[in-house]
């Protein structure tokens, strides 16, 4: 389980890094047939990075562009998308939404980049070897803000391998990014250079599952408009009133996107949930900032049974001892009944003999 989570974390990190880079060979990312290169403008705040990090005035408008280059001798269709930055359950920031999942925004998010940046085209068709510029228009909020509005440009390559079927047409209508994969380019917007104090809110824990495996989920919110970097998450799960550690985690080098809400998980490592009261304790730290974790929750018998039955790593309950004990109880009960009846018969026989003797 831990190895699987590490692989997911590593792949996510590779995607983020590859998306923030530009001008690299498309074939290096799952056989993509096009390259991307952000045209970085003069108002770039951090000139050391290859993604957009722009400082602009309140209410200001600006047009930016990304160069798309078809590197093959066949037509390529690129579908761009603007996404607000999200934090996933591995503590990795994502700028894509290639699975078209329902997005949950934290209530602290005042300025959503999806409302601020507009695409000139919703689909870009690249002829063989063609290079084309994709334009985007930014309209900054009229009210000045501190911190950063974080998001990304997701450039997906459309997979035409299953086009033409009725089922595919229905899927593409309902989820426009079905069967797509591509680059992601960070897009950060700010009004000023003021530093923001990180703020983390712990919002409860509960019995849950991750990838159909038992894992306690901890609801976490980054309520500040700033990235929280080099995060260390450690936690222990115990039954209420017990010192025995049932499950624990120790994860480092996480990153939380600004104004995001997400779940972090503590794997049960194949252990069963038992009905009862639990306590999850630990901390989330970043630099000199530390946020304690002390969350109590209850697992009902119904929920425990539901999760335990679904988790393929959980061993089925062994009823052997119960069956043996039940059988022994039954044997002893039958033996007791037999002895009582036998004793009663003997008493009755003795009484009968005594009665006959007295009559004589």
Mean pLDDT: 84
| Sheet of most strands | 5 strands, mixed
Number of domain units:
3
The CATH topology of the largest domain is Immunoglobulin-like
What is the β-strand count?
A: 18
CATH architecture field of the largest domain: Sandwich
Element pattern in H and E: HEEEEEEHEEEEHEEEEEEEEHH
Beta strand % = 35-45%
Share of residues in helices: 10-25%
CATH superfamily of the largest domain: Immunoglobulins
| Rg calc | 32 Å
Overall geometry = elongated
Characterization of the model:
This protein is an alpha+beta fold and 360 residues long. It has three domains: 2-190, Sandwich (Immunoglobulin-like), CATH 2.60.40; 200-310, Immunoglobulins (Immunoglobulin-like, Sandwich), CATH 2.60.40.10; 321-360. The chain has helices at residues 2-20, 113-116, 166-174, 301-310, 320-359; strands spanning 34-39, 52-55, 61-70, 76-84, 86-87, 93-94, 117-119, 124-126, 131-139, 149-158, 180-190, 200-210, 213-222, 228-239, 245-256, 260-267, 276-286, 289-299. It comes from Enterococcus hulanensis. Residues 1-21 form the signal peptide. Residues 173-309 form the WxL Interacting Protein host binding domain. This is DUF916 and DUF3324 domain-containing protein.
Annotation keywords:
360 residues; alpha+beta; Immunoglobulin-like; 3 domains; five-stranded mixed beta sheet; four-stranded antiparallel beta sheet; 5 helices; 23% helix; disordered N terminus
What is the compact description of this entry?
Keywords: Membrane, Signal, Transmembrane, Transmembrane helix. This protein is of the alpha+beta class. Helix content is 23%, strand content 40%.
């Amino acid at each position: 389980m831990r190895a699987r989570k590490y692989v997911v974390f590593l792949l996510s990190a590779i995607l983020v890094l590859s998306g923030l880079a530009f001008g690299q060979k498309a074939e290096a990312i799952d056989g993509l047939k096009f390259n991307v290169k952000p045209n970085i403008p003069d108002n770039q705040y951090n000139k050391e990075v290859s993604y957009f990090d722009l400082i602009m005035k309140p209410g200001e408008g600006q047009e930016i562009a990304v160069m798309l280059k078809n590197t093959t001798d066949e037509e390529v269709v690129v579908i761009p998308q603007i996404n607000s930055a999200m934090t996933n359950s591995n503590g990795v920031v994502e700028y894509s939404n290639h699975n078209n999942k329902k997005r949950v925004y934290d209530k602290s998010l005042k300025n959503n980049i999806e409302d601020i940046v507009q695409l000139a085209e919703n689909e870009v068709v690249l002829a063989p070897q063609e290079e084309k510029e994709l334009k985007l228009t930014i309209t900054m909020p009229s009210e000045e803000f501190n911190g950063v509005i974080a998001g990304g440009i997701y450039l997906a390559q459309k997979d035409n391998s299953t086009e033409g079927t009725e089922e595919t047409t229905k899927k593409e209508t309902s989820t426009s990014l079905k069967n797509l994969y591509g680059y992601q380019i960070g897009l950060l917007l700010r009004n000023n250079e003021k530093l923001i104090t990180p703020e983390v809110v712990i919002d409860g824990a509960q019995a849950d599952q991750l990838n159909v495996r038992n894992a306690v989920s901890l609801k976490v919110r980054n309520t500040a408009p700033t990235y929280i970097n080099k995060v260390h998450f450690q936690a222990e799960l115990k039954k209420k009133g017990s010192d025995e550690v049932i499950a624990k985690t120790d994860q480092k080098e996480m990153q939380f996107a600004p104004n995001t809400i997400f779940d972090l998980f503590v794997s049960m490592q194949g252990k069963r949930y038992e009905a009862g009261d639990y306590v999850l304790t630990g901390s989330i730290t970043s630099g000199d900032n530390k946020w304690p974790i002390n969350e109590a929750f209850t697992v009902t018998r119904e929920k425990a049974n539901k999760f335990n039955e679904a988790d393929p790593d959980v061993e089925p309950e062994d009823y052997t001892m119960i069956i043996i004990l039940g059988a022994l109880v039954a044997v002893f009960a039958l033996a007791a009944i037999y002895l009582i009846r036998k004793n009663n018969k003997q008493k009755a026989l003795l009484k009968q003999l005594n009665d006959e003797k007295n009559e004589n």
